[in-house]
Structures are given as structure tokens and as C-alpha cells.
Amino acid sequence: MVAAGADLADEVGPARLTMGLLAERLGVRAPSLYKHVGGQEDLLRGIAALALGQAADAVGTAVQGLAGRDALAAALRAFRAFVVAHPGRYATTTGREPTGPEDPMALAGRRLLDVFRAVLRGYDVEEPQVDHALRTLRSLCHGFAVLEAAGGFRWSTDIDESFEWLLVFADRGLRAV
Questions:
Q1: Residues 80, 141 contacting (CB under 8 angstroms)
Q2: CA angle 121, 144, 92 (to 5 degrees)
Q3: Quick check: 105 and 49 in contact, CB under 8 A?
Q4: For the segment 115-134, what is each residue's pLDDT rounded down to a tens digit?
Q5: Phi and psi torsions of 29, nearest 5°
């Protein structure tokens, strides 16, 4: 059911996703959904955990066997592709805090961060600076991908060429710290 909710969130956005709409999509009555989730927020938290896990899988697969700039480029491209392909489910990952360290959102989020930490090992980023580097990479890629998914780049310049600029910028920045 969470997977169906994630698909629906990608279609209509998480703000318009309701238990009633999901029940209609699944061909069941809304009260029967409550056997599987505690309510709307529980559904959105489940979708967020699913999305973080899927993003971790996509990015982790993309960087296998790579290091340095190649790993960075693969990670950022995979993250961008995931966000653009799944904008609704990805949107559920922001603004929600895990309820504790064993919360599925926390576990999936740590898996995704661990992949990016591994990418950073290809650079001379010292441990006290790793959190800053992770936040910078997420901000760069999150902002770009969310804007792209929302149709925010409407002028004529090639979007992929702009993303290559982002990759060069991130690589040079990580080399400079």
C-alpha cells in the first residue's frame, strides 16, 4: 500500500494525496487502509522511508567501483534522476523528522548518507568538515533536481549542460577544502 501511495504521490504530489484518493486508486474503501497505516501522516512517513531507501539503492548502485570525481558525478546524476523521476515521493522526505534512531526513515536516510560519505572519501575532506560537505552536496543537487522536476528551467540553455556545470563546481569545491 505504501508503494501505491508513493506512485500516487508522484502523480498528484504529496499535498494532494489523501487516504480517500489512495483507497479509490486501490479499489477499496478508505477505512480498510487503516489496517495498514495509522493515518495520513503515517502513510507519508512510510512513503518518505521508501523514497530514501530507493534513493540510497540508486545512488549506491551508481557509485559501485568508482572513486573521486567519477563517484561524485555518478552519485549526483543518480540522485538527480531519482528526484526527477519521483518528485512526489521525494517531496515527502523533507520536513519530516524521524521519531528515533530505529525509525525506517532514519535507517534509510543513514543508508543514503553513508553512500555520500563513501563518495567523500575520494576527496581530502577531513571528518569535522564532512557534515558541511554533505549539506552542500545535498543543497546543490536537491535544489537543481527539485527545480528541474517542477519545470523551473524554462529558458533555452540545455539542462544537462547546466548540471555538468554543477558537477564541475562541486568537484572543484571539494578539492579546495
A1: yes
A2: 90
A3: yes
A4: 999 999 999 999 999 999 99
A5: -85, 145
Confidence of residue 10 (pLDDT cuts 50, 70, 90): very high
Using CA atoms, how far apart are residues 108 and 53, in angstroms rounded to an integer? 5
Dihedral over Cα of 33, 34, 40, 45: its sign: negative
* 0.90 surpassed by pTM: yes
| Residue found by looking up cell 575532506 in the block | 125
- Which DSSP symbol is given to 18? -
Is the pLDDT at 156 greater than 90? The verdict is: no
CA distances from 83 to 16, 76, 86, 119 (A): 18, 11, 5, 19
User: What's the chain's length in residues?
Assistant: 177
CA distance linking residue 163 with residue 165, whole number of Å: 5
96-116 pLDDT tens trace: 999 999 999 999 999 999 999
For residue 94, give the amino acid letter.
Answer: T
Query: Does the CA dihedral 65-108-160-170 come out positive or negative?
Result: negative
CA distance 121 to 90: 26
C-alpha cell at 43: 502513510
